[in-house]
Structure prediction request, 611 residues.
Amino acid sequence: MKQKKQSSLSRILGYAGGHKKLTLLGCILSALSAILGLIPYVCVWIAAKNVLETWPDFAGTSGLARWGVLAVWTAIGSIVLYFAALMSTHIAAFRTARNIRRMAMTHVLRLPLGFFTGNQSGRLRKLIDDNAGLTEDLLAHKLPDLAGTVVTPVAAVLMLFLFDWKMGLLCLLTMVLALLSMCMMMGGKNAGFFHRYQKEIERMSGEAVEYVRGIPVVKMFQQTIYSFKAFYAAIKDYSNLASQYAMSCRVGQTCFLTFINGAFALLIPAALLLASGGDIREVLVNFIFYALFAPACGQMINRIMYMSEAVMEADEAVGRLDEILDQKSMEEPDVQKYPANAAVSFEHVTFTYPGTERPALLNVSFSVRPGQVTALVGPSGGGKTTAASLIPRFWDADSGTVSIGGVNVREMDSEDLMKQVAFVFQDTRLFKESLLENIRASRPDASREEVLAAAHAAQCDDILKKLPQGLDTVVGTKGVYLSGGEQQRIALARAILKDAPVVVLDEATAFADPENEYQIQKAFEVLTKNKTVLMIAHRLSTIQNADSILVLCDGKIAEQGSHEELLAKHGIYASMWEDYQRSARWRVGNPSGKYRTDRKTGRSGKEENAV
Prediction:
């Protein structure tokens, strides 16, 4: 039997925990407040009836003060109860939103690291924080209002027919027509508007961020108009959506406002007709009551409309949060195993990224012995970074086994697995903290002396020397920024301090200038000494001395061997090496095509690519 899906409200209340009782209390108090709020209208009707029945001799009136006092005190009591209701629901709403944020972040921390490479931190913050905030308004305001709105119509309908059923029927008719108009606005093709609206807002926000980030490049190449097209298109689509919705609601909104405020216009002719054939004083008393009570009924309809909007927001918030909660978390083993050594092995590994059909790796098998350096090369999109990412469980393989020291990485505790692997990627990220804390992030219990030793081994002495406070300088403040190569050296200091037996390097010299590259290569010697190393490289000169080179193409191992062995095969690697050598000989400003001697190979040749 198919399990019935919980409503958004039920799921949100499920996050309230012990504060769910406060929400229930707030709703009860709001309902009592709504009932008390109706009593002053009755008091006014009774007082008006007494006055008109004794008119013009007011000496016969009695109890006017009593009814006036009762009206005042019940109105005050209604306000106090509503205030207490809102206090209860606000406390519950804030705690519920906190629980949602905590639950979402707890789930995020269990997700594989690869999830964060495809999801920007700003988007995750918006999904978690903003959507948790959307639930606050529903629980704090709209839910207690709903309780009052549910109770009020029952009492209101009874009161509408209590004094004059004809006038009451007219008021009820306007309420029904207003509700039908509201359904016409929010139903049909407009039912999914809020979801489309949120999508367009997110798209426009993303395009705005991308446009602002690209302004330096845009100005450099004078492509302002063309680069603005995507952002402008997002703005136009959002504007068109909002305009279309507004225009589609014009008839319904006009009818809604007309009916909700039109009861008084119907009551006047009805009162005149009733007065012409009955007791004028009684008709006048009833008219006063209904003239005062009809706007209260209109306010009730307004609350229903706002409540329906809040429910749509809650549905959207829960749906957005599900984008994160539906992500499969990284499974932790019941029985933890420990690797015997630092050997890395891939056995028939196949992996496909979520949302794609083509495998990034297909039946890949290779091994890296302890202390051995293995390089991964090949064309872009061949699967090099994917293979490296499976070792620290950025993702889990769809099939096959990735193991360290004979133990499947899935069978290792995630914390222990992280202790086994140090990785340095081309996209280095530094925190807005001191260099000391940035380096110590890999081993928080490290002493200052150990951090300094790691920085020295990573060739960071010149960086520390030029900064105003040395190791205590905070990155990103007061104009303190590091170049790409300098950031890489700080990242290498992290990895050296961690001292993990397995090292993964993903094009760690990509953004380094020649001087930084030389220093990074010296840091590599310290980092990789007696370690199992898996290195991804596009600069083939950096991996000539690797123990083994794997050529990955279209997710498969196309070639495997040492540098000399692969050159002798005259295959993909040999072609890549030839292209690399040609690019290394390329020089600007030699149109004569003179021959020169290459310092690396010792061979002479014509500079084919000179400009």
Notes: The longest helix spans residues 64-109.
